[in-house]
Design goal:
With 163 residues, the protein is an alpha+beta fold. Helix content is 49%, strand content 20%. The chain contains five helices and six strands. The strands form two sheets. A three-stranded antiparallel sheet has the order 1-2-3, with no helix packed on it. It has a three-stranded mixed sheet with strand order 5-4-6. 14% of the residues are buried.
Length: 163
């Protein structure tokens, strides 16, 4: 390891311990030339999980990107952060569990839409409008009508039970 102070390449390890999350090893080193101490961290160089976009491009799976899309869809809606985090975890599991270490964004999007549909219909429509990339108002209305049809039986049951 090269000393950050004098550039000398020989040092000795004074202390070594795991990080709190056990994802890296922290080492305190002392330069054998100038005697100054510095810290280094060792971690496993992971092979990234990839997603295959609609146009065939491959991109690193980004939890934060999925979460920010969900936050935008669920903005000003009564959805807990825990539920959104759970959806992100399920999406990440889909990619991790795939044998090739990659998944198509269509599969991830379908999973997210299915979960949102159960949790919050407005967030589902918001997410679907971006994900499905509706070309015109007709496509958007068809999706809304389909959503309303699945909602009607539950509303009808509720009305009958009140009588």
């Amino acid at each position: 390891m090269k000393c950050p102070f004098c550039g000398f390449v020989n040092d000795k390890v004074v202390d070594s311990r795991e990080s709190k999350e056990a994802e890296s090893i922290r080492r305190r080193r002392e330069c054998l030339k100038c005697g100054k101490r510095f810290t280094t961290y060792e971690r496993i160089d992971e092979i990234p999980y990839m997603v295959v976009k609609k146009d065939g491009r491959r991109e690193k799976f980004d939890r934060q990107k999925v979460l920010s899309g969900l936050l935008r869809a669920g903005e000003k809606r009564p959805i807990s952060m825990g539920k959104l985090e759970q959806i992100v975890n399920e999406a990440e599991s889909l990619v991790i569990d795939s044998p090739e270490r990659e998944a198509k964004t269509s599969g991830i999007g379908e999973l997210i839409m299915a979960r949102l549909k159960k949790i919050d219909k407005v967030a589902y429509v918001r997410f679907a409008s971006v994900y499905l990339d509706f070309k015109d108002v007709g496509e958007f209305m068809a999706e809304l009508k389909g959503l309303l049809k699945t909602k009607e039986p539950a509303a009808a049951r509720a009305a009958k039970s009140e009588k």
